[in-house]
């Protein structure tokens, strides 16, 4: 899905919404659990600019798989130790799923009441799509994605240290997995499954 198409003007705000919601949720969870690091780093904000990672943005734009700049945290400040790390890691994907659900509800209401036009529909649709993709993609256990932190929190300290040493190579590993189709084979079924659940719930309330 190579990115420069007529829908670009609709995809830009949707993409920024998805990335900002994701990173803000990480920052908010960390601060709520006792770590002020995201606040000091300027990441406790709904301004998308501090959250953008150039490589991750290009990947998401061109291939529908990407990431934002990881929110810095100090795990020693977090309450509940490893459970705190896991909570912070899950906050981003969780927020994206909630945002996808909200987008689906808004789309249903706007369509039912015939309040929008094609431009509004497209922005809402892309907001739904990017949030769902970002949520599922970030659960892949390869750094710098959230799934790697979730896996690491379950490992013994020595194994966790060894696992985290692949972090500098993570983006290249992800690019290779995308190119080989491994990521798509994981993403699309999970995305479709979550999408069906969201659609079923929305159908009950709209």
TrEMBL record:
Transmembrane region(s): 88-111, 123-145, 166-188
Keywords: Cell membrane, Hydrolase, Membrane, Metal-binding, Metalloprotease, Protease, Transmembrane, Transmembrane helix, Zinc
Membrane topology annotation: Multi-pass membrane protein
Molecular-function GO terms, alphabetical: peptidase activity
Location relative to the cell: Cell membrane
Biological process according to GO: proteolysis
Domain Peptidase M50: 117-162
Listed cofactors: Zn(2+)
Superkingdom, taxonomy of origin: Bacteria
Family, similarity comment: Belongs to the peptidase M50B family.
Xref: PANTHER family: ZINC METALLOPROTEASE MJ0611-RELATED, ZINC METALLOPROTEASE YWHC-RELATED
Protein name per Swiss-Prot or TrEMBL: Site-2 protease family protein
């Amino acid at each position: 899905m190579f990115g420069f198409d007529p829908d670009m003007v609709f995809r830009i705000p949707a993409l920024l919404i998805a990335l900002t919601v994701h990173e803000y949720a990480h920052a908010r969870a960390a601060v709520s659990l006792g770590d002020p690091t995201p606040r000091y780093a300027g990441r406790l904000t709904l301004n998308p600019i501090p959250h953008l990672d150039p490589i991750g943005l290009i990947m998401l734009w061109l291939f529908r798989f990407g990431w934002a700049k990881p929110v810095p945290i100090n795990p020693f400040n977090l309450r509940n130790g490893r459970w705190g790390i896991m909570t912070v890691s899950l906050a981003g994907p969780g927020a994206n799923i909630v945002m996808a659900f909200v987008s689906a509800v808004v789309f249903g209401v706007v369509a039912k009441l015939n309040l929008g036009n094609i431009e509004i529909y497209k922005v809402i649709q892309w907001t739904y799509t990017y949030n769902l993709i970002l949520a599922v993609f970030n659960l892949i256990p390869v750094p710098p994605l959230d799934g790697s932190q979730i896996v690491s929190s379950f490992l013994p300290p020595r194994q966790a240290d060894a696992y985290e040493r692949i972090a500098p190579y993570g983006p290249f590993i992800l690019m290779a997995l995308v190119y080989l189709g491994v990521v798509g084979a994981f993403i699309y079924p999970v995305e479709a499954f979550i999408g069906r659940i969201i659609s079923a719930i929305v159908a009950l309330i709209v």
